[in-house]
Amino acid sequence: MKKLIFGIIVMFPLFLFSCKEKKSNIIEGQITAYPNNQIVKNAHIKLEATKIKQGSYLNTWELIGETESDNEGKYSFKFDAIRVDKYKISASHDAYKTKVVLFPPKDFTDTYNQNICLVKDAMLKIHLKNQIQPTSALDTIRIRVSDIPEECTDCSPQNFQTIIGIIDTTLTYQVVGDDDVFIEYVIIKEESNYHQSWMHIEANQTNTKTISY
Q1: What is the pLDDT of residues 46-55, one digit of tens each?
Q2: pTM beyond 0.90, yes or no
Q3: Per CATH, the architecture of 121-212 is what?
Q4: What angle do CA 97, 25, 17 make, to 5 degrees?
Q5: Side-chain half-sphere of 32: how many Cα atoms within 13 Å?
Q6: What is the DSSP letter of 10?
Q7: CA 52 – CA 108 distance, rounded (Å)
């Protein structure tokens, strides 16, 4: 009888432990589009991670799961606790640029909210040529394309570029489609002249502009 009671006492905590809900990670969010946060449904969402196994960091992305955003643009992943160094979410849709978001884990298990805003793809090519006489090897142009929305994480930097000499070249910029960019440049020949203009960018194509000086 004592042995039976002892066995019950030993097994009861194990039974309670086995009945506890297994801890999970939850990563969820909503997919929207620039500029008005329109809901993007049927976006393909892929979740990957670089895992840590037995104290070793594995520098390869391992697929955790894939899903699509619902009619409200929402998505969700739920998975068992794993030790990772970094998560990566890739959101893609035929009408928008693919966006990749990287973030570290907060804990062994946790809940994460990752809202993602997509933008439309576009390129801008600006052809520069100093052909207005007199030309000189000292002719200078400083140019930049700005007002690119921060939602485009892989668009071109918005700093000035300086080009000196007799040139005939094309600068290429990654920008956002169905949006406007601000182009400003300074031409230094015999004197300095500042120019500025707005340009509307058509989506999913290469937009062009020529500057002669």
Answers
A1: 999 998 876 6
A2: no
A3: Sandwich (2.60)
A4: 170
A5: 11
A6: H
A7: 11
